[in-house]
Design brief:
Strand order of the largest sheet: 1-6-5-4-7-3-2-8-9
Oligomer: single chain
CATH superfamily of the largest domain: Histidine kinase-like ATPase, C-terminal domain
Number of domains: 3
Structural class: alpha+beta
Number of strands: 22
CATH architecture of the largest domain: 2-Layer Sandwich
Shape: elongated
Largest sheet: 9 strands, mixed
Strand content: 15-25%
Length: about 650
């Protein structure tokens, strides 16, 4: 068995035999495991078998370049055995094994980003829902402490003459010592994990229980999983065949589900299964799953994929990036017949055969998603809810497939409560409408109440409400769908005049000199805004903010400012000249009351900021202004 937690640091030098402290994150994780109340404890065996299988995979790969590592024992397998009197369950493999330094690093630390967030989430998970998180994050070895009060790991790295024993009770650190002569002789290569079971875990000493768990979670494992019971001959519990190499007609829905759970470490069923064989210039088998729920690492900054590459049933790597990063939620296997078996991981990115597989695979996955969206829209809606924010990264990044991705996209809008496609939107466009209108922000409810929507709603125009951060980026690429450009309602001019108002929705027509009003507001606001203009977006609100025609819209500028990358562009203040508050500004300007104009202009700007979810730039000044006008209104004195 090799560790399921690869180290990102240089291996430590072998330490002297004795006690070692766990990394702080491991100690916290073990506390959660030892005191676990989770109901689905069976997953510990799935995790240990998966680790053992990985160890066999790694040895088989290393043996391509160094066949002597496997020469004396070429049959790789995972072996389970029980000792009822001693209350011990053992999981052994004859895979790559671990050195002393690897035992210390791999079983004493978690070298992975996001550890703290994972532990916080694990601690907060409701009872019985943690098993998916445990496996997804790669800490499956520690799940054994849910059922064992002590664990011993005997390991000898392939090609080494020495073996070592790692042991821990899960609470007081761990010890590593050289194996005795007898221990070393019993393990020519690989790893043996011995669990000293807790009294309440005695069911895992029953052969039928072991067989049930293997059939449920590990039947897809490529290597034989064999059981040796007390007075029972060795027998194989799994089919040990590559599921992806079988014909689809030979595979049951339950077999797919079992393989999915084993590959993804989740407990439910896949949302979509893609299984096929490609033949022609290249031959390869594919088995991919769209998870039923979000993987824990979906938003890791590294955006790495998790599809495994095999060559003729030999595991090569899970870092071949066989799908673009916006499809990183896909899990599964690609098994090639043509890629060189001895290809290095470094050469994979530039290998033309892998590049062809990558292109074909991406196209097939998107085609399958399109088919799901058309045939089973409710099921697809759940996929979009889980992974839509990631798929939209592709609209920004993948020009070649942009139209297909736009067709897959689903959005909240001002019509109804469900999600809408762009195809739905275009079909419902109003007479005279030539653009697809949207509003981007970070809060859906705030978007629904945005004053920038008013004129569009009064004309019966549907507006897409984009509340994912990525929406502020992909919409900057001059997108079109069905030759209809996408237009932000918070940027530049919004000319809706060709679209008639709904009956009874026409706004009041402003009276008076709007030119003088705009000039007075510009003078009062100075550098706080880039421009002031009469709005054609507003019906009932006094004012709103929009971005200038060039540069980012308001939502993107705010995101950039949060990262200290903002362009510092000042917003445009648009006013509803027919609104009473704006009329008061015009009246004060006409009477030469410059102080009142300044205060009212400040109130208009701060109100617009508040409606956009921002605070006034000077809250104290805002409150003083507001208090002055409220006091005047209550006293009936007006503005003198």
């Amino acid at each position: 068995m090799s560790s399921d937690v690869p180290s990102e640091t240089e291996p430590r030098a072998p330490a002297a035999a004795g006690q070692h402290a766990f990394q702080a994150e491991v100690s916290r994780l073990l506390h959660l495991m030892v005191h676990s109340v989770y109901t689905e404890k069976d997953i510990f065996l799935r995790e240990l078998i998966s680790n053992a299988s990985d160890a066999c995979d790694k040895l088989r790969y290393e043996a391509i370049a160094a066949p002597e590592l496997i020469a004396e024992d070429q049959r790789l397998a995972v072996t389970l055995s029980i000792d009822k009197p001693a209350r011990q369950l053992t999981i052994a493999d004859n895979g790559i094994g671990m050195s002393e330094a690897e035992l210390i690093d791999n079983l004493g630390t978690i070298a992975r980003s996001g550890t703290r967030a994972f532990l916080d989430r694990l601690a907060a998970e409701p009872q019985g829902t943690s098993s998916g998180l445990i496996g997804q994050f790669g800490v499956g070895f520690y799940s054994a402490f849910m059922v064992a009060d002590r664990i011993e790991v005997l390991s000898r790295r392939a090609g080494s003459t020495t073996a070592f024993v790692w042991s821990s009770d899960g609470t007081s650190g761990f010890a590593v010592r050289p194996a005795t002569e007898a221990e070393a002789a019993s393990l020519p290569r690989g790893t043996r994990v011995t669990l000293h079971l807790k009294p309440e875990s005695d069911s895992y000493l029953e052969p039928y229980e072991i067989e049930r768990i293997v059939k449920t979670y590990s039947d897809h494992i490529l290597f034989p999983v064999e059981f040796i019971g007390e007075s029972v001959e060795r027998r194989q519990l799994n089919t040990a065949s590559a599921l992806w190499q079988r014909s689809k007609s030979e595979v049951t829905t339950e077999s797919y589900a079992e393989a999915y759970r084993g590959m993804t470490h989740q407990v439910g069923d896949p949302a979509l299964t893609v299984h096929y064989k490609a033949e022609g210039r290249q031959s390869y088998a594919v088995l991919l799953f769209v998870p039923g729920e979000r993987p824990f690492d979906l938003f890791d900054v590294e955006r790495k994929g998790r599809v495994k590459l095999y060559v003729r049933r030999v595991f090569i790597t899970d870092e071949a990036e066989l799908l673009p990063s916006y499809l990183r939620f896909i899990r599964g296997v690609v098994d090639s017949e043509d890629v060189p078996l001895n290809i290095s991981r470094e050469m994979l990115q530039n290998n033309p055969q892998v590049a062809q597989i990558r292109k074909a695979l991406t196209g097939r996955v998107l085609t399958e998603l399109v088919a799901l969206a058309e045939k089973e829209p409710e099921r697809y809606a759940k996929v979009w809810e889980a992974f839509g924010a990631v798929l939209k990264e592709g609209i920004y990044e993948d020009f070649e497939r942009r139209d297909q991705l736009l067709g897959l996209a689903r959005f909240h809008s001002t019509i109804g409560t469900g999600l809408r496609s762009l195809k739905d939107y275009v079909a419902a466009m109003r007479p005279g409408q030539t653009e697809i209108y949207y509003l981007a922000g970070s809060n859906l409810e705030r978007l629904k109440a945005s004053p920038q929507l008013e004129a569009a709603l009064a004309r019966g125009v549907e507006v897409l409400l984009l509340d994912d951060h990525v929406d502020s980026f992909w919409t900057t690429r001059g997108q079109k769908f069905d030759d209809k450009p996408l237009k932000s309602l918070t940027q530049g001019e919004a000319d809706l005049s060709a679209i008639p108002y709904l009956e009874g929705k026409s706004p009041e027509t402003p009276t008076g000199d709007t030119g003088a009003l705009v000039a007075a507001l510009k003078t009062a606001l100075g550098e706080a805004v880039s421009d002031v203009r009469v709005s054609n977006r507003l019906v009932s609100s006094a004012a709103c903010l929009v971005a200038p025609g060039a540069g980012p819209d308001l939502a993107l500028e705010r995101l950039l400012q949060q990262r200290d990358q903002g362009l510092g562009l000042k917003p445009v203040l648009e006013i509803n000249a027919a609104h009473g508050l704006v009329a008061a500004v015009a009246d004060s300007a006409a009477r030469g009351r410059s102080d009142d104009v300044r205060d009212l202009a400040g109130l208009l700007l701060d109100q617009a900021r508040i409606l956009d979810g921002e605070l006034p730039q000077e809250p104290a000044v805002f409150v003083e202004r507001l208090n002055r006008f409220v006091t005047r209104g209550l006293s009936g004195t007006g503005a003198e």
